[in-house]
Amino acid sequence: MSPVLSVTSAQLGAWVVAFVWPFVRMLALISSSPVFGEKKVARQIKVALAALLAIAIAPTLGPMPDVPLFSAGGVWILIQQVLIGTAMGFSMRLVFAAVQAAGDYAGLQMGLSFASLFDPNNGGNTMVLSSLLNMLAMLIFLAVDGHLMMISTLVESFHVLPVSDAPLAAEGWHFLALAGANVFSAALMLALPLIGALLTLNLAMGILNRASPQLSIFAVGFPLTLLGGILMLQQLMPHLAPFMEQQFALGLADMLQVARAFRQ
């Protein structure tokens, strides 16, 4: 007579809890992170990826809190996992926000403020140069296996900040706000060579206009500014990958730092 496999309701509930809570954190990060969180990626793919990751790492995690899933405590833990995953994904997305801001700064100096297109991720118009730099940053991110390192950091966050019913510390939100301030400094560091060159070119054209008023500086200035910006952008391209690798490393470190800051 073959043995009968019996599963109690307590065991089934423990298995469901061990899958659902990590799954929620992973789905929140995938939905808010760069590359994975793009609107071009289908929702079914995001859910399937989060489910596969949860199935893969659930056995490696420690014991889960002894809280029923369908209870006030279980819902509170679910909300916490959503907040943790979203905050970690947002801290990585700040790196790409800096790239887009650098494109906006440079595009304004080049006279490309009217050259914009609709970006479904932002829900509004974005400058062409900003979209170009963002696309290049995503390609560099994939080329250096940044998406794999981001998933590895997510898995490590379960050891830094295990699933529990303890409230999240306010230091996590404070650190996330400080990380948002770095967007402007990183964007200026990336766009400063181009902005400085274009400012010098504009000053030279201003002096030329004072020396020769007969020269229509408005007719000549725009093509020269655009051409100078394109030439400076060409000189900037070889240095984009090393700069972005450094920013990606800082973004991954910020993800773990946010998880540590949330811990009481």
UniProtKB/TrEMBL annotation:
Query: What domain of life does the UniProt record list for this protein's source?
Result: Bacteria
GO cellular component assignments = bacterial-type flagellum basal body; plasma membrane
Q: Which family does it belong to?
A: Belongs to the FliR/MopE/SpaR family.
Q: What is known about what this protein does?
A: Role in flagellar biosynthesis.
| Subcellular localization, as worded in the UniProt entry | Cell membrane; Bacterial flagellum basal body
What gene is this protein translated from?
A: fliR
| Pfam families according to UniProt | Bac_export_1
Transmembrane residue ranges: 12-35, 47-64, 70-90, 132-155, 175-203, 215-237
Name of the protein: Flagellar biosynthetic protein FliR
Give the membrane topology, semicolon-separated if more than one: Multi-pass membrane protein
Glycoprotein among keywords: no
Q: Which organism is it from?
A: Collimonas arenae
Q: Which GO terms describe its biological process?
A: bacterial-type flagellum assembly; protein targeting
Keyword set for this entry? Bacterial flagellum, Cell membrane, Cell projection, Cilium, Flagellum, Membrane, Transmembrane, Transmembrane helix
